[in-house]
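Q: Two folds, back to back.
A: First:
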Amino acid sequence: MLVAISSSGNSPNVLAGCEMAMSLGGYVVTLSAMKSDNLLISQGNLNFYVPAETYGAAETCHAAILHFWMDQMI
């Protein structure tokens, strides 16, 4: 499983990682923000989009999602 995080949703290295993981049959979870038409939204099996307009707000929301997810697994 790949968890891909990009606040802009358009980071070339993150997108390339998603493409590689999917080509190998991996499961991809994405977390993105900024614009709802970012490229990362279409790259995962499960996608989380945060309608934040600043990096600080986006990263804070992404951290909250990841903390909640990990708490549920423990």
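A: Second:
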Amino acid sequence: PVQYCQCFVYAAVATSLSRALGVAARPVTNFQSAHDGEKNRAIEKFYDIAGAAWEPVTDGAPSHDSIWSFHVWTEMYFDRADVDCGALSLRSSCANGWQAVDATPQEESAGGGFQPLEALYRMGPASVALVKRGYGGDYDSEFVVSEVNADINLWTRSSKEE
């Protein structure tokens, strides 16, 4: 059995299945794609005074932040009635249109209200229009906001004691 797969394969399969079901879909490639394991919209890199990289340990584990050379996901075109655009002070159809859906399992899902799916690895649908405005929302949409718009923080320590 196949145990591992690349993101472009997941995206191609998701795009093909969506199109077979009659949903407009396209694969999207993001270059220099941030992978924000800490979910704070920041990729943090640490260096010592000599410029050598080091990895701090938080809660017994190293950071999972990284920048991938590329990442591919699927965008599907449909309306979203589940997003309350009024709460965001936006027009009523603010979330309609292209939706980012990432079939690549990367981080355990924060859920979306449906108990059997709480422990899955999933992302989306995330409204591309809202992602461009920096809104995350349900279905782990913060992850795609970070992929395309995370800050990169460079930290330097002056001595090994700090």
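Q: And?
A: DSSP finds three helices and nine strands in the chain.
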